[in-house]
Amino acid sequence: MDLLNIIWTYVVPFIGVLTVLVFFHELGHFAVARRCGVRVEVFSIGFGPELFGYTAKSGTRWKFSAIPFGGYVRMFGERAPEDNPEDNEESRVVTKEDEAVSFYAKPLGQRACIVAAGPIANFLLAIVALASLFMIIGQPYTPADVGKVVEGSAAERAGLQAGDVFLKIDDAEIDRFEQVRQIVQLAPGKPLSIVLRRGQQVITVTAVPDAVEETQFGATQKLGRLGVSRPSGDMVFVRYDPFTAVWKATERTYFLTGSILDALGQIVTGKRTAKELGGPVRIAQISGDMAQAGLVMVIQFAAILSINLGLINLFPIPLLDGGHLVFYGIEAIRGRPVGEKAMGYSLYFGMALILCLTVFVTGNDLVQMGLFEYLMGLVT
């Protein structure tokens, strides 16, 4: 019964959210490929053996596969015939009709657009999801007022007082208390220039958030803490008209993208530990927690996850969309494609890198869950 509860609470929401995000990612590739006249042979959600599907009039096989962690779109003629040395001469001969709908025969710009369309679709999905939330339910909103300053905190050292209103932190405009928390958490030990409204005055102070370790969703992270709380009162939801909702959603997507890149940059430079990176297990755990917290949290988490998926695929790693875009950039400079051997080696490298990263983040997840300590306890 416990296992069924875990599956229903965590696995099902995780697979549901991931399926939606993967579908829209691959739909981006599919839509632009069709727009450019490329024949799409397979549109698959998941990998491995097919569970069920159907073949459309266009010839595309739409299917769900057994391993629900990703998906792919297979286009006709992804490689030029001369790049397949294992093929015999007869199989390398293609008709003009086939060449017209082949991916490899399309101009460089169109091929780059097809590849970039997947990550772009994820960013657009985040904007659409957030805009829909802001129009129908409203944007979660807490005024950026200081309700209380904790004694001995970074806020007290910087001179913040109850009743102050945050206007700006560094270059970021502030209109919600949630923005203050998000910025501060990513800046442990980093001086922040804070613009406040105090009564009729506008003042600027410098605060250095304290570095504290907190456990969020089963992961211990080093976060910044300013030491202020918002005024008492319930969170309100502010609804917007369609145009304003789209604008606010775009701003929110831009802010979240910057925050994710900032956090990754801190991990690369050593300011944050790589143990904070999470994998499928942690995402499943968060998905379940968000599902229990309600629809608003699910939509916001799905938007964040969609942004992450778009960003990851834009990284210049062979095998990912960003790696292919790098190859196309080299092709544009050289005037000819990257050699088949170099391409093959780089794809193997990318596959190994992704596999190592997957093992690493999954190990992080299992450590945070205490699995290894539990297993050691059984042995000793």
Report the β-strand fraction as a percent range.
Answer: 15-25%
User: Mean pLDDT, rounded to whole units?
Assistant: 82
Please describe the biggest sheet, giving its number of strands, its sense, and whether it closes into a barrel: 4 strands, antiparallel
Going by helix content, strand content and strand pairing, the class is alpha+beta
Question: Roughly how much helix do the residues carry, as a percent range?
Answer: 40-55%
- The strand line-up of the biggest sheet is 6-5-7-8
Question: What is the overall number of helices?
Answer: 12
Low-confidence stretches: 88-93, 374-380
Q: Termini, distance in Å?
A: 28 Å
Alpha-carbon Rg, integer? 24 Å
Helix and strand pattern: HEEHHHEEHEEHEEEEEEHHHHHH
**Overall strand count:** 12
Shape: elongated
Summarize the structure.
With 380 residues, this protein is an alpha+beta fold. The protein has helices at residues 2-35, 89-92, 96-100, 108-136, 154-158, 177-185, 242-268, 280-293, 295-314, 321-334, 340-368, 371-379, and strands at 40-55, 61-75, 139-141, 148-149, 165-169, 172-173, 192-198, 201-207, 210-216, 219-225, 228-229, 236-238.
What does this structure look like?
- The chain is of the alpha+beta class and 380 residues long.
- It has helices spanning 2-35, 89-92, 96-100, 108-136, 154-158, 177-185, 242-268, 280-293, 295-314, 321-334, 340-368, 371-379; strands at 40-55, 61-75, 139-141, 148-149, 165-169, 172-173, 192-198, 201-207, 210-216, 219-225, 228-229, 236-238.
- It has a 4-stranded antiparallel β-sheet.
- A hairpin with a 2-residue loop joins strand 5 (165-169) and strand 6 (172-173).
- The longest helix has 34 residues, at 2-35.
- It is elongated, with a radius of gyration of 24 Å.
- The two termini are 28 Å apart.
